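User: quick one - fold this with beta-D-glucopyranose bound?
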Amino acid sequence: MSATYIFPKDFLWGSATAAYQVEGSSMADGAGMSIWDRFSHTPGMMRDGDTGDVACDQYRRYRDDVKLMVDLGLKAYRFSASWSRVLPQGRGAVNPAGLDYYDRLVDCLLENGVEPLLTLYHWDMPAALEDRGGWLNPDVSDWFADYANLMYRKLDGRVKTWATLNEPWVITDGGYLHGVLAPGHRSPYEAPIASHHLLRSHGAAVKAYRAEGRHRIGLVVNIEPKYPASQSPQDLAATACADAYMNRQYLDPVFFGRYPDEMKDIFGEAWPTWPDEDFALIAQPIDWIGVNYYTRSVARHDETAWPVKAAPVRQIGATYTETEWEVFPQGLTDTLTWLKDRYGDIPLTITENGAAFFDPPVAEDGRIQDPLRVGYLRKHIRAVHDAIRLGVNIEGYMVWSFLDNLEWSNGFSKRFGVVHVNYQTQERTPKDSARFYARVAASNGGALADTAAPV
Ligand code: BGC
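Assistant: Sure. Structure tokens for the protein plus beta-D-glucopyranose:
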């Protein structure tokens, strides 16, 4: 008998984006500059000099985009708010037009039966706050909690599912250690400080929510499971450090009130000692975890690798995406079961999963055939189902991404959307993967069983 993949009743099928990647008009109508406006306009930082000035123009086209979600039968939309759009200086005076944008977007989603999932911070720190030290300034947790409060007061109730931060690891590893993402710093001394202040800010925003909000708040993390290349003690130790650095560094403090032991070995003298009271703030109970999963890594010990002495081992015979990530659906099941085993039976939502592949141009009949993405989604959504069968409490799946969009410093060169965007005309064209995903959503997973059917 062939497998069936029916998901729990009320499973939330949706898609995801982030403000700077799709909105455009990032400094329109009184909005302030963010670190991504600044970074993307710095020569040499972005592939082909791309910026998010226009991106997918969702700021002006959100109604059409919501209509397209409805056409595809999507029941949820995970998006982020731009802090400097609502608070141009990051604190102090509110920009009413900016706040109004999210007000209208949320109303439009609700009127169309699409559940909003709002992430407060997806990487676009107000530039005015970066000038005061950004995530390195200990006051940032107060600034962030004030911004969060403003959003709760405006939208809580209509928004019932909140996330504080998107992927603190990427913010610090890309933005403070390797300098490839905004704000473009490169310092092993700064990275742990930025991480810690991100966690304190997360905690402060959760605490503020308990006073102001009535629904659910959580944290979105990217998990990339690490598998040892061999059973040698060196490879096993390198794998544990890689896992601590990327996967446990953020969740252990939130759930256990402490960092993984490996952090000190990784950063050496650059690893600070933190006051105990910080962990009381960080370890606020949260209501859900958002899981972003793209790939795994097979690790082998390498003395020259930095900051973790682990190098990834390329897997012969495996498929790699355009961003050079191995397609490994089992890693998603492993991640979800690991989260439950380690952190308990907390509700999980897959807040991002998807792939950049080369897409052919729109054909004359309007179709875009993207079989690799269809295959990726089919296998990964099946992997989610496997985890549910193993008893993990998973409430929803948000494909990354609804639209092709600005892939950060890779500019527009990598397309992750299930909907194609023509950046000259802003025309949206659902790819085969969007049609496939629509069938999966409409059948609550049933269509996953069917590998031969046309999309
Ligand atoms: C981020 C997205 C990004 C995606 C693909 C995640 O790390 O949250 O903003 O576009 O991965 O790289």
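One thing worth noting: The pocket of beta-D-glucopyranose is lined by residues 18, 21, 166-167, 170, 222, 292, 352, 400, 407, 416 (CB under 6 Å).
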